[in-house]
Design goal:
- The chain is mostly helical.
- The protein has helices spanning about 10-25, 30-50, 60-65, 70-75.
Length: about 80
């Protein structure tokens, strides 16, 4: 599988929301970091949804879980 980079352009409303999220942290958080965390959350939700609906096997679920950060892995295992 060949990975192709993508770029996302955010309108002013989303850009402002990113800035609000950044202000909530004491350390510097980049836009990329915020978007990556949102993707992780969406990916974890998708895995849980697909598994509970019977669309993916336990094996595929396990493969997906291994691609998540530790704090999200435990949320799916429970």
């Amino acid at each position: 599988m060949t990975l192709k980079p993508i770029s996302i352009t955010l309108d002013q409303i989303y850009s402002n929301k990113i800035r609000v999220i950044q202000e909530a942290f004491s350390e510097h958080i980049t836009c990329k970091m915020i978007v990556e965390e949102l993707f992780y959350g969406g990916y974890a939700t998708a895995l849980k949804t697909l598994q509970s609906a019977g669309f993916i096997s336990d094996s595929v679920l396990g493969q997906g879980i291994r691609k998540l950060p530790d704090y999200l892995r435990s949320s799916i295992d429970s």
